[in-house]
Design a protein that fits this description.
10-stranded antiparallel beta sheet, alpha+beta, 6 helices
Length: about 290
């Protein structure tokens, strides 16, 4: 499909509201890998008994999030993949509440003849009652089946600089074979993640885990690993470089820095990097 650059760039912001419960905070935590080890006190804080002690910060990504097929972009859903995701946190998310988001198209880029386009977006998340600003998000979607008339060429960002040394910390995080079905309960019902025939049609041997589920796992276990002696997650960004299949074990590697760390996620059994050029920001405080 051919989309129009000026129409996309001129789209009005998409405003959405969502009320969510403590139960939904627990479902999100289950979807990003919490609960597989019942003896893990840190993950149990996010699972209850209801209500849990706290909500995972990266749940901001899925709250009041418009689904690509309902945004009026005109893109071919079966060819649309999450390219990158970033988040900056301004205030802790409550375990339950009501939120409002504003999503804008911030850029559209051509990947070359037959290679589709990249659509960049920003989203701001606020409390629907108090107007507390919870998070600012940036994301890109790769639309493999769609060209955009008049779009500038896509320039791939330079990889994040990681020192030529072994990582300071490495942790292995298993995922459940039901991870995609659980994460779909947060709202993303794309058949690519749930139906084998849809995954094959999109070029994958089986359903793949949602990119934002991989992102949420990286965020959750980065906070657990890097904040064991204090601090809290203030932001995380990175690029989705390969799919994760439910049931994979993901190895997270961290290279510490003054205010956080570089992060890379790999699936060892395929020797494949699945989250690249990653950066975690840690803020002092509880």
């Amino acid at each position: 499909m051919i989309m129009d650059y000026h129409r996309l760039m001129g789209m009005a912001p998409i405003v959405m509201e969502q009320r969510y419960s403590a139960k939904e905070s627990c479902i999100y935590a289950l979807g990003v890998g919490c609960g597989l080890d019942p003896s893990d006190d840190w993950t149990r804080r996010h699972l209850g008994p209801l209500p849990p002690v706290r909500a995972l910060p990266a749940m901001a990504i899925v709250l009041a999030a418009p689904r690509p097929h309902a945004m009026g972009l005109g893109a071919t859903l079966s060819g649309m993949l999450h390219g990158s995701q970033g988040m900056l946190l301004h205030a802790p998310l409550p375990v339950e509440g009501a939120v409002r988001s504003e999503t804008r198209v911030s850029g559209v880029f051509d990947r070359g003849e037959g290679r589709g386009c990249v659509i960049a977006m920003t989203r701001e998340l606020y409390d629907a009652q108090t107007q507390t600003h919870y998070a600012s998000m940036q994301m890109t979607f790769v639309c493999r089946s769609d060209q955009v008339a008049g779009a500038p060429p896509y320039a791939k960002a330079e990889p994040a600089s990681v020192k030529e040394r072994a990582p300071d910390l490495v942790v292995n995080v298993p995922t459940s074979p039901q991870a995609a079905q659980i994460f779909a309960l947060t709202g993303d019902q794309n058949p690519l993640h749930l139906i084998p025939e849809a995954a094959v049609q999109a070029g994958f041997p089986q359903p793949i885990l949602h990119g934002v589920a991989t992102y949420g796992l990286c965020a959750a276990f980065a906070e657990k690993t890097l904040c064991s002696e204090g601090g809290r997650l203030a932001g995380i960004s990175g690029r989705f470089s390969a799919p994760v299949f439910p049931g994979d074990t993901i190895q997270l590697a961290f290279w510490r820095e003054t205010d956080g760390a570089h992060i890379e996620a790999r699936v060892l059994k395929r020797d494949t990097c699945v989250f690249a050029d990653g950066r975690v920001v840690i803020r002092a405080g509880a």
